[in-house]
Amino acid sequence: MHSKDQIQKWIRGPVRIRNFNVMFARILLVFSLFVICISSSYCQNFANLASGLDADSDEMDERVPEIRIHFLCDEFKETKRIPSSLYEKQDLLNLLAELSKKEDPQLRFISTNTTEEIMEVNGQRNTWKEGWVIYVNEEKISTKALKKGIRVGVEDQIQIRFEAVERVFGRPKD
């Protein structure tokens, strides 16, 4: 059989391996906890960043270039943000059509061969005395110009206001 020394060496061998395995497991546990802490703090920072980009936050200006469209009337005020390139200009009517598809807000248009007019926003409809009027950089945009195409970019201030309008034969007087 085996001598006493051989048995002790055999016993000590697995003990060393067991001690190494325990040490390795501890190091692995500490490393995995470190990775979890780092990743959770990164995720927390990402969550804070994402929550800081809500619809009413002005902090988003510095992070993502966007086109803002403000809808203003007595019943509601709403701002829609559309991500865009800093140098890219887009057609305003196409932007409004995309919002209309998403129904955010609900938009309806009156379209003729030469004009395009917003008829309704979120249930607020045009009347004979009031209607939706589009302003780009405080300049009123005619229904004919909207149909021809108005290019807007990140630097433009776009407002769509529900206000008193003068109509001629049912159409806004331009």
What descriptive keywords fit this protein?
five-stranded mixed sheet, alpha+beta, single chain, 174 residues, three-stranded antiparallel sheet
Summarize this structure briefly.
With 174 residues, this protein is α+β, with helices and mostly antiparallel strands. The protein is 40% helix and 30% strand.
Written overview of the protein:
The chain is an alpha+beta fold and 174 residues long. It is 40% helix and 30% strand. The chain has four helices and twelve strands. The protein has helices at 4-51, 60-63, 92-102, 143-148, and strands at 66-72, 77-83, 90-91, 107-111, 116-121, 124-125, 130-136, 139-141, 151-152, 158-164, 167-168, 171-172. A five-stranded mixed sheet has the order 2-1-10-7-8. It has a three-stranded antiparallel sheet with strand order 4-5-6. A hairpin with a 2-residue loop joins β7 and β8. The longest helix has 48 residues, at 4-51. The radius of gyration is 32 Å and the shape is rod-shaped.
Secondary structure tally, helices: 4
From the helix content, strand content and strand pairing, which structural class follows?
alpha+beta
Order of helices and strands: HHEEEHEEEEEHEEEE
What is the overall silhouette? Answer: rod-shaped
Query: What's the Cα radius of gyration?
Result: 32 Å
Helix amount: 25-40%
The averaged pLDDT comes out at 78
Low-confidence stretches: 50-61
Strand order of the biggest β-sheet: 2-1-10-7-8
| Share of β-strand residues | 25-35%
- Topology, number of strands: 12
Main sheet record: 5 strands, mixed
CA-CA gap between termini: 112 Å
